[in-house]
Every structure is written in structure tokens, then in C-alpha cells.
């Protein structure tokens, strides 16, 4: 039995210590937005945030985590897909098949949390997830757009647009 802080809620998860976090999330907790792609940390479909860092959950054993570690999955990134990256992804129409997109979004949001205005080179270095459909140019465009959305001043409540 492990205690995991997933999307702000501490949960008891009944798995062996060597069980990859990916399978605990999908099979025990029912959060299926995190995808299985390769099982060897190469593709990034299983990317989640652990204490604000993007990590590949397919190679992260549950036993390596503490109850104080903050795990965020695609389901916990925002309510109603309101995160700047999620908005930009929809606006730019990034997904083709969509399978890798939850991992791509988690990697992009971790990048923007550390670097609010990344260059193309920054994006290329940080985005190591694989997209079989080859939407890399749209991913880069969406990350730049997300940076714009995130840096835009918030409209004052009650003000007319």
C-alpha cells in the first residue's frame, strides 16, 4: 500500500513498490489520460509532473515516491482545460491522432513553468516526447501561443472588452 498525492488528493494505492506509477494511475486510480507508449521512457506519452518536474511515469516506481510528493496528471493540470497550454493546443489544432498529446501538454506546461518565453531552441531541447504523426511544428507554435496567453494581462472583472 502506498500513499500518493495525486492532483491534490492523497490516495491509498494498493500496488507493489516496483509497480510503475503509470499503471497505478491508470489501473488503481482510474486516471487514464496518462498513456502507455513504450514502457522505457523514450516516447513521453506517460509524462506527468512530480513536484513540478516532468517525469516519465512508465519508469517511475511507486516505491520511489513519498506521500509528500505532488503528482499532477493531465486530469489535474486544470479544471475544464483552462491551462494556457491546453487553450493553445486547441487554438492551434495540434493533435492529429492525439495519442501523445497528454504527455506533450505535460512536457510543454513544465517547460513554460520554468521558462515563460522559450525560444525555438529551448522548445526543441525540452520537448523530447515523440509524436508519430509529426506535429512538431504545430507543437512549437502552440507553445509560443501558450506563452502569449499566459503572459497576457488578465481583464479586470466587470470591465468591457
- Topology as a string of helices (H) and strands (E): EEHEEEHHHH
Radius of gyration: 16 Å
* CATH topology (fold) name of the largest domain: Ubiquitin-like (UB roll)
Gap between N and C termini, in Å? 52 Å
- The proportion of residues forming helix, as a percent range, comes to 25-40%
The CATH first-level class of the largest domain comes to: Alpha Beta
Question: Overview of this structure, please?
Answer:
The chain folds into 2 domains: 2-76, Ubiquitin-like (UB roll) (Roll), CATH 3.10.20.30; 79-151, DNA polymerase, domain 1, CATH 1.10.150. It has 161 residues and is α+β, with helices and mostly antiparallel strands. The longest helix has 16 residues, at 136-151. It has helices at 21-29, 84-92, 101-114, 120-126, 136-151; strands at 2-6, 9-13, 47-50, 53-56, 70-72. A hairpin with a 2-residue loop joins strand 3 and strand 4. Helix 2 packs across helix 5 and helix 3 crosses helix 5 (136-151). The chain is 34% helix and 13% strand. The protein is built from 5 helices and 5 strands, in the order ββαβββαααα. A 5-stranded mixed beta sheet has the order 2-1-5-3-4, with helices on both faces. Residues 155-161 have low confidence and may be disordered.
Task: Sum up the structure in keywords.
single chain; 161 residues; alpha+beta; Ubiquitin-like (UB roll); DNA polymerase, domain 1; 2 domains; five-stranded mixed β-sheet; 5 helices; 5 strands; 34% helix; globular; disordered C terminus
List the helices and strands and how they pair.
Elements: E1 2-6, E2 9-13, H1 21-29, E3 47-50, E4 53-56, E5 70-72, H2 84-92, H3 101-114, H4 120-126, H5 136-151
Parallel strand pairs: 1-5
Antiparallel strand pairs: 1-2, 3-4, 3-5
Helix pairs in contact: 2-5, 3-5
Pfam families: Fer2, Fer2_2
Protein name: Isoquinoline 1-oxidoreductase subunit alpha
EC number: 1.3.99.16
Amino acid at each position: 500500500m502506498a500513499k500518493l498525492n495525486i492532483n491534490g488528493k492523497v490516495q491509498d494505492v494498493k500496488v507493489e513498490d516496483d509497480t510503475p506509477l503509470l499503471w497505478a494511475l491508470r489501473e488503481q486510480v482510474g486516471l487514464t489520460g496518462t498513456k502507455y507508449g513504450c514502457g522505457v521512457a523514450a516516447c513521453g506519452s506517460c509524462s506527468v509532473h512530480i513536484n513540478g518536474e516532468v517525469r516519465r511515469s512508465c519508469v517511475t516506481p511507486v516505491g520511489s515516491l513519498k506521500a509528500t510528493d505532488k503528482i499532477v496528471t493531465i486530469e489535474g493540470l486544470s479544471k475544464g482545460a483552462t491551462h494556457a497550454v491546453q487553450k493553445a493546443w486547441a487554438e492551434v489544432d495540434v493533435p492529429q491522432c492525439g495519442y501523445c498529446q497528454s504527455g506533450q501538454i505535460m512536457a510543454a506546461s513544465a517547460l513554460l513553468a520554468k521558462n515563460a518565453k522559450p525560444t525555438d531552441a529551448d522548445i526543441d531541447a525540452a520537448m523530447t516526447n515523440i509524436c508519430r504523426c509529426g506535429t512538431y511544428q504545430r507543437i512549437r507554435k502552440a507553445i509560443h501561443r501558450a506563452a502569449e496567453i499566459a503572459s497576457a494581462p488578465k481583464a479586470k472583472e466587470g470591465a468591457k472588452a
